[in-house]
Amino acid sequence: MLTTLAVENYRSLRKLRVPLGRLNVVTGANGSGKSSLYRVLRLLADFARNGAVAGLAREGGLESTVFAGPGRSGPNTPLALRVGFAGEDFGYAAELGLPIPGQSMFDADPEIKSEAAWAGPVLRPSTVLADRGGPVVRLRDEAGGWGMVPHPMKPYDSMLSELADPQRAPDLLALRERIRSWRFYDHLRTDAASPARAPQIGTRTLALAHDGADVAAALRTIIEIGDAGALAAAVDHAFAGSRVEIVNRDGRFELLLHQPKLFRPLAAPELSDGTLRYLLLAAALLSPRPPQLLVLNEPETSLHPDLLAPLGRLIARAAEDTQLVVVSHSDELIGVIDEYADDATMIELLKQEGVTTVAGQETADEPPWYWPDR
After folding, report:
1. Are 110 and 51 in contact (CB under 8 A)?
2. Residue ranges of the alpha helices (H) in 94-169?
3. pLDDT tens readout for residues 10-26
4. Parallel, antiparallel or unpaired: strands 323-327 and 200-201
5. pLDDT score recorded for residue 109
């Protein structure tokens, strides 16, 4: 389980150390930095797939994403973005900056300046498993000594993706696979052309696709090998007396919703955006193979107010099996989660003079954190 999320110089997140629990609810006013905190988690996940540089490029590049508010020394201050997390057994951090100008047309691409992976919740010299300064990487061996990687790392490659190996770096491999198991849901499509509304080829689906395209197969997988009772209860809580049915038509699965007093079930194209979105969230939260971390960004979007209480109970139930981060601006949803979850961590973000902080957090309240050296 992640215990700390750390970031410096990402949009309004000048310097943030956020303690995490089993179920974390991130809230705050519009523009307070909620989406930025969500994107930091996405960026960390990108390192495990060697996509961090491309991910920043999609946001406009390092110049567009790095913090530009008070605290920067001036326009000539080197751009540097730091992100990292610590967990009960592993931690990871990285720094990105701009390259020295040269002859390449890709001079605007950020470079990975440093990385470190360590055992336990805090980076210390004795806990480091692998670290990198520029192109040079060293790995801890079984005897506790160090071995140098014989070839230089490319500035756009992460050691998580390039060096994780069961023989040479098994701990790095374990860390990478944990990060790769994280799931993010912020673009569950419910529009008229949504693939979730059309029949799809059905195969066992242990994790709902990021856009919800395979929702029928995911729900059928829950029914057959997951917690079918929890799914039935989640549907009944939201739509009293209703039940989900998945039909197989020549290998293509279709989603049907049976409701009281209707002579026939409603097919996916007939469902309202809110109804379909709730079923998509149920499929994500009740996965038979829970991830190490599940992140939801504003799950209340397009939901009828009557669905917020069932969704809050569903989120609280899912936290029994996986760590969750829920970014939300719905006070009702947050209240239900707080009521039904055993120990929800509430993270309220504030923004003052362009800088995001955690409400009520003093310097002494911040979890211990150390960045790797370049």
Report:
1. no
2. 159-162
3. 999 999 999 999 999 99
4. unpaired
5. 83
Q: 177-227 pLDDT, tens per residue?
A: 999 999 999 989 999 999 999 999 999 999 999 999 999 999 999 999 999
Q: What is the DSSP letter of 49?
A: T
User: Is residue 69 predicted with pLDDT exceeding 70?
Assistant: no
As a whole number of angstroms, the distance between CA 16 and CA 9 comes to 9
Q: How far is CA 2 from the centre of its chain?
A: 11
Q: What angle do CA 60, 61, 63 make, to 5 degrees?
A: 105
Which DSSP state fits 66? B
**Nearby residues of 77 by Cβ (< 8 Å), 6 or more positions away:** none
Distance CA 249, CA 236 (A): 26
Classify the C-alpha dihedral 57-62-68-74 as positive or negative: negative
Give dist(CA 11, CA 311) in Å, integer: 30
pLDDT at residue 314, rounded to an integer? 97
* Cα-trace Rg, the chain: 22
